[in-house]
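Could you help me review a protein record that somebody else here produced? What it holds is a sequence and that sequence's fold in token form. I have pasted the whole thing underneath without changing anything:
=====
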Amino acid sequence: MIYKKFIRPVLFKFEPEFIHNLTLLAGRVAGFTRVSRLLRGLFVFKDERLEQEILGIKFENPVGLAAGFDKNAQLTGFLPDLGFGFAEIGSVTANPCKGNPKPRLHRLIKEKGIIVNYGLANKGVEEIGEKLKGKKFRIPIGISIAKTNNPSIKGKESIEDYFKSFKKMRDIGNYLTINISCPNAGDGRSFEDPKLLEDLLKKIQKIRKKEIIFIKVSPDLSKKNLDKIIELAGKYQLNGFVISNLSKDRKGLELGDKARFKGGISGKIVKEKSNKMIKYVYEKTKGRFVIIGCGGVFNGRDAYEKIKAGASLIQLITGMIYEGPGVISRINKELVRLMENRGYKNMGEVVGSN
């Protein structure tokens, strides 16, 4: 593969956040030029067996970009040309956030992972919301909202913080994800406390119309808290879960000199935790909720495992960083082959078939 043999070694010589920003710039430029059309021919793979209608939204394929890459919604016009079936922007917060001090990204090449400590860096709901207001998208777009990275915002103020983002972004895109599991903000997981989460959901319920709402949970969440969150999701008629976010658990990892860096870990390391949680939620709820599976997806088999466990859709970031942009079409082609080999006629038949 050209990317892994020639391009990635060069990119990996540079600081990760520099390459991330360079990629965003290149994507914006490509989106405004005919380069985008060329990429479409190279990367887009379509097969009707991959199509699903979920919650009234049509997805041409199940492979999406996870929140955390396109934080400020700069690539919504470009991502369809890489073959993504959907994308989630953000996480967006009520107030602009500069994020944590740099360096805040570190590659774990041996483990095929990344230490992420961005700290919810984004331009805030006012600027991002105004930019996206009334915009038409070629693929389904989700908006991930999180609490502003400011530990002094607590209790009722933190509920108001989330609520401001919900009100601003509720009419943009196809669905909203309430991210209660950011490990890189001082109190980014405070809403894993079911009491605080319920107070937020009560407030949202008072003005909710037909918004599709997901909750994004941590792979480190205790079963007890997960059960309570599932209960609240049913009580307040939420639509599903994004499973899962970055992991803070470093048990068994030999990170060497990188152990000193703060942050959550993405990539292959999260795969099994994510799969087990997807399977648990799907079986416990008997498929009542839509599950978006995220964590450790590098190829079609990784995606297939999550779908068989109960995920209707999957997301990735780290897999694209290590495997290149061609990974999206490769995953979709591999999914079709796996379905053919096992006699499935469409993606819906695979969901929860473990």
Observations:
- The chain has a mean pLDDT of 94.
- Residues 95 and 124 are 5 Å apart (CA to CA).
- The chain has one domain: 2-248+257-350.
